[in-house]
């Protein structure tokens, strides 16, 4: 009697332990891989490994990151890829492709190929010298696929890539670090703004087709931020605290054409591969009414110097605000973690004006049924 009940009891615990073990493995296997391409808004540390001036590997970058350490993220804490990874159930963010730790099982999580300073065009960000331009990022993606195939076989590798989520954030630098970098830049002498934008969009389309051919099937594509309203531009070009009209005009021409191009691509390939994330609108919400989102300012950067803390780089010698959650901008160009959280919230649940044709919650539900 006593024997029987204790063995039943023992059996119950064995089953429970087994279920718990299953539970702790299952989410890892079920979360989809995540790949990231683009510029400093999404670079998680690739540039740390490159001889470039476009880097965020010294304090106070990372002051709110776990361990309070700089990692190469252009944020006080987490960046947009970190927060998306969290939302799709990954237990860790994909590592920078340049990281020597990206080996073995870590490859299954995905990889981050982004490199601060790059643009759609090869000639954007030349002043940063040694960065990984978009075609370079795609070449590394191919190399990644070969390494993954060695690990899990080519069929599994192909499946992992086609079921993955991809994020691509690029384009802002084609304005601020190319066309408008200096007066009479080569590109601004070559093209009037509307023609330059047409050229950018057609080059972006080529990049996205290449990504599609490499196997990507769910790709979040973000627009530019409010380029003319970032603290750097308020300091350099703004008029009486107003945004730079020229850069705002560029954004207002570029973003709708990007959305239209993505729409056209989806029509051509007859499926919703490319998802347009209206980051300009997301940013605009808190830039135009910072207090509604708990910010005391959307004009002054937390870290920097000069008017709006908008001049030069964020370094240990810069002004630094005590509470990063109260600032929409961490440095002269990049949002704070708090702002990144608001953006990712909209990516997850935004209505059609924010996420077209659908938000990430809907995508996750759709894809889990396949
Ligand atoms: C940029 O470089 C890639 C290869 O490095 C090339 O295929 C592409 O045509 C270049 N784009 C332009 C606009 O020159
Ligand atoms: C549409 O897609 C097909 C293949 O998917 C491609 O061959 C064709 O060039 C594309 N058309 C346009 C206008 O891009
Ligand atoms: C920073 O501000 C946020 C938002 O108002 C607040 O919740 C938090 O307690 C503040 N943190 C510190 C350390 O004062
Ligand atoms: C996502 O988008 C759909 C369709 O636009 C909308 O109905 C839904 O409320 C949004 N939010 C969530 C959490 O799905």
TrEMBL record:
GO BP annotations listed: lipid catabolic process
GO terms assigned for molecular function: hydrolase activity, acting on ester bonds
Coiled coil regions, renumbered to chain: none
Keyword Hydrolase tagged: yes
Keyword list, A-Z: Hydrolase, Lipid degradation, Lipid metabolism, Signal
Keyword RNA-binding found: no
Pfam families: Lipase_GDSL
Signal peptide feature range: 1-31
CDD domains from the UniProt entry: SGNH_plant_lipase_like
Family matches, as InterPro entries: GDSL (IPR001087), GDSL_Est/Lipase (IPR051058), SGNH_hydro_sf (IPR036514), SGNH_plant_lipase-like (IPR035669)
Alphabetical list of Gene3D superfamilies matching this protein: SGNH hydrolase
Family: Belongs to the 'GDSL' lipolytic enzyme family.
Protein name: GDSL esterase/lipase At5g18430-like
Annotated organism of origin: Herrania umbratica
